[in-house]
Design goal:
Number of domains: 4
Distance between the termini: 125 Å
Subcellular location: Cell membrane
Keywords: Cell membrane, Coiled coil, Membrane, Signal, Transmembrane, Transmembrane helix
Shape: elongated
Structural class: alpha+beta
Oligomer: single chain
Number of strands: 8
GO molecular function, one term: mechanosensitive monoatomic ion channel activity
Number of helices: 25
Radius of gyration: 42 Å
Organism: Pseudomonas arsenicoxydans
Protein name: DUF3772 domain-containing protein
């Protein structure tokens, strides 16, 4: 033990630095007894036990012949995988520690090959042996986990086959006497199996009711009943008080109240069920048959609780102002009893059907149970829809405002009505299993749609509150991120939209992969099996990589924006570069930075570029057919930013458009016209077409030219001097080149004189011409000279 402790000290000191390796190696060798003892947490017997457990599950799969057994075996495999994962998690730190110790010792040196090995070599051999055992155990566990995962896939295929077989099986109409025979004249073997089930259930009750255990048993049952009834009300009132007094007033409080009602119902029911189960099993475990029935009946209870909890939360008949969906008060009150009736019906009938399944009764008895369940569920759901439609028509007849209907609500209503009609027809023509499947999907669809609707509302309201500029959290985000109200609202909309889209996707997947009796673990497993399919596994996208990628993206964008602000506000203004060059450099830096951030994000995801060949191929085809203009404009934008034939602030003229360049983007350039409107010109046109850059030389001058027509009887010299003096005296007209007046045209309508002057910038030509024209007309009026009048049109 002493030498083992010294070995650990050696590793620690070696990690601290080279100077720590001066200790004698002879003091650090482990004893020979320790070198032969494994410190691995998983022994060979544990691996053999896991293998035997997996073999038993395989044998049970080969003997299973109904969906219920397959679901139970799938749960067993999920538990098996969880146990294997736990063992792997316990071995991984030990593997890393041993590898780190081996890295400290370094590779084999020449001194280690000597006939008499050094203590370092002994230590290395000991650690290598331990690591080899850990590697073997991890490899064996990985193989067991892979086999279990393959079995889950095979079970899914078998379940689909069984479902297709049962659904397409025609057994007999509910109107035929043979369908009701198991109720009035059951088979002897069915009676025997039922009696055996009753006997085993009675034995379990008798064990729990033994003398000495009765007081505790009664106490547990009464406590469970109190939690399920009074405890639920207390929990719901407590959560309601928290929502009212701690949640902000508005939509978030309303959605939180609905969620609190469902959570209180689920939690108290789960506690009550655990107490009842403990009261029955605290002395002896249940028999396999009763245990199987208890597991399946527990799922049915949760289904019924979800139906009542969700319906009570969404209808909210006691507090109509808390109601989330747009349902009128009379309609909500009218349909309120139906969810409870449906829950009680499912609890009783499905519970009895589970008895026929676990006891292995005959096919007529099983089909009878399915038919009765389908018939009553179809009638209850049909009555619910009929009652709701009847009340809506009555409300509309009174002249009150109708409910706000949406396309999605109408589509759901139509699908449900079609399903009800299809289930009833299937029962009448003899497809009992098909009718059972349809009715179960109706119930499952109600749970999924209501549950995800509630989650969607809570998520949307939470985003709106957290990122509201008026809330304390919104103000904190503004101060932390340095963004304004508009940006904060955009973040709220983006997050809310992304979250709701994700929830809708999960709802659609859950709607098709699950069913009545599907546990939460099975739902998560099947959902993530679809979302994490072969394509994502090839791309090597895992949650750890995804988190790193998100952090890299957010940090990268923040750094680029910070550096761009530093360039625009601090560095570039202190240089001798003109504003256009500064804007071009800032834009080019931002584009390159965002490209690098995207590459870093993909690298953080663990995506290998060899696995993106199909993306590159699809992109090349897209470029060839539809993206060539985008790529051409992108390349042209890079040319504009590097060669700078035009820059921000230049006055240009292209294709009849003349204005100032305000911004050069990656795809297009913004040109501001004289009326302050913006024209978006693709970058490729600025490269490929003839373009007039008025301010490219830096010394461009504007030309202010006026053309005036005078009568034939004027004194040309007088008018010439007047025009010349007016131009020369104007403050914006340059002395060099000097202004001049030219005799342009002589016609029967009059004499045309053209006066021209130069200004310092083309941008002030319009203003200068306007000022000159006002001044010329003023001087002509003072001199009594009039402009020529146009000849009348004949």
């Amino acid at each position: 033990m002493r030498k083992a402790l010294k070995s650990m000290i050696f590793v620690v000191l070696t990690l601290l630095g080279p100077s720590a390796t001066v200790l004698s190696a002879a003091e650090l060798s482990p004893p020979s007894a320790v070198s032969t003892t494994s410190s691995v947490a998983v022994s060979q017997s544990d691996l053999q036990t896991l293998q035997a457990r997996l073999d038993r599950i395989k044998q049970q799969i080969s003997q299973a012949n109904n969906l219920t057994q397959m679901v139970g075996l799938q749960d067993s495999l999920q538990l098996f995988i969880s146990d294997v994962d736990a063992l792997q998690s316990s071995l991984l730190p030990e593997q890393k520690q041993l590898q780190a110790q081996l890295d400290v010792l370094g590779p084999v040196s020449l001194s280690d090959i000597a006939p008499e090995k050094s203590e370092i070599a002994t230590q290395r051999a000991y650690l290598s042996e331990q690591k080899a055992k850990v590697d073997y155990n991890l490899k064996s566990l990985a193989a067991l986990r892979a086999n279990a995962a393959d079995l889950i896939i095979q079970i899914a295929g078998i379940r689909r086959s069984l479902l297709e077989t049962e659904v397409t099986l025609r057994s007999g109409s509910i109107l035929s006497p043979g369908f009701w025979a198991p109720l009035f004249n059951p088979l002897p073997e069915d009676r025997q199996r039922l009696a055996e089930f009753i006997q085993q259930a009675s034995s379990a009750l008798q064990v729990a009711w033994q003398p000495g255990n009765r007081l505790s048993g009664v106490t547990l049952v009464l406590l469970a009943a109190a939690i399920w009834s009074w405890g639920r009300r207390i929990a719901e009132r407590g959560l309601t008080w928290v929502c009212i007094h701690r949640m902000p007033e508005g939509r978030l409080r309303r959605s939180s109240l609905a969620l609190a009602s469902v959570v209180a119902t689920l939690l108290t029911t789960a506690c009550a069920m655990q107490l009842l189960f403990y009261a029955l099993t605290r002395e002896l475990p249940l028999s396999p048959m009763i245990q199987s029935f208890a597991d399946e009946f527990e799922k049915v209870i949760y289904v019924c609780i979800l139906i009542t909890g969700l319906s009570r939360a969404l209808l909210s008949t006691r507090h109509p102002s808390w109601r989330l969906p747009a349902i009128a008060d009379p309609v909500a009150l009218a349909i309120q009893p139906y969810p409870r009736l449906l829950s009680v019906t499912l609890l009783i009938l499905v519970g009895l059907a589970q008895i026929t399944n676990v006891t292995g009764m005959s096919a007529p008895a099983i089909l009878f149970g399915r038919g009765v369940i389908s018939l009553l569920v179809t009638l209850i759901v049909g009555a619910l829809f009929y009652r709701a439609s009847q009340i809506r028509r009555a409300v509309a007849a009174t002249g009150e405002a109708p409910e706000a209907s949406t396309t999605l609500a109408g589509l759901i209503y139509s699908c449900a009505a079609i399903a009800i009609v299809a289930a009833m027809l299937a029962l009448l023509i003899g497809y009992v299993s098909l009718a059972r499947f349809i009715t179960y999907q109706l119930v499952w669809g109600f749970i999924i749609l209501c549950g995800f609707y509630l989650l969607t509302q809570v998520f949307r309201d939470s985003c709106e509150y957290l990122f509201s500029p008026k809330s304390s959290s919104g103000k904190a985000f503004k101060q932390l991120l340095g963004i304004g109200d508009v940006r904060l609202e955009q973040v709220s909309v983006i997050l809310s939209g992304a979250g709701r889209a994700t929830l809708v996707l999960l709802a659609v997947i859950s709607l098709f992969v699950g069913g009545v009796g599907t546990t939460l673990g099975q739902l998560f497993t099947q959902t993530f099996a679809i979302l994490g399919g072969e394509g994502l596994r090839k791309l090597n996208i895992i949650p750890d990589h995804l988190l790193k990628a998100v952090l890299a993206l957010l940090i990268g964008i923040y750094l680029i924006r910070s550096l761009c602000r530093w360039l625009d506000n601090e560095l570039l203004p202190k240089t001798d570069m003109d504003p256009g060059m500064c804007a071009s450099l800032s834009t080019l830096f931002a584009n390159i930075g965002y490209a690098l951030v995207i590459l870093l994000t993909l690298s953080s995801l663990g995506i290998k570029w060899t696995n993106l060949a199909w993306i590159v191929s699809a992109l090349s085809v897209g470029i060839g057919f539809g993206l060539q203009e985008i790529v051409k404009n992108f390349v042209s934008g890079l040319i504009l930013l590097t060669e700078r034939p035009v820059k921000v602030g230049d006055l240009i003229s292209i294709s009849g458009v003349e204005g100032d360049i305000r911004r050069i983007n990656v795809r297009a350039t913004e040109i501001q016209l004289s009326d302050r409107s913006i024209v978006i010109v693709p970058n490729s046109q600025l490269i490929s077409q003839n373009l007039r850059n008025v301010t490219l030389g830096g010394s461009a001058q504007g030309v202010a030219t006026l053309e005036l027509v005078f009568p034939l009887d004027i004194d040309p010299e007088q008018v010439k001097n007047l025009l010349y003096d007016t131009y020369q005296e104007h403050e914006t007209i340059l002395d060099k080149p000097a202004p001049f007046v030219r005799f342009s045209k002589l016609s029967p309508d009059g004499i045309t004189l053209t006066v021209t002057g130069y200004v310092s910038s083309p941008r002030i030509v319009g203003t200068t011409k306007s000022d000159l024209l006002f001044e010329i007309l003023k001087r002509l009026g003072a001199a009594g000279i009039e402009l020529a009048k146009p000849a009348p049109v004949t």
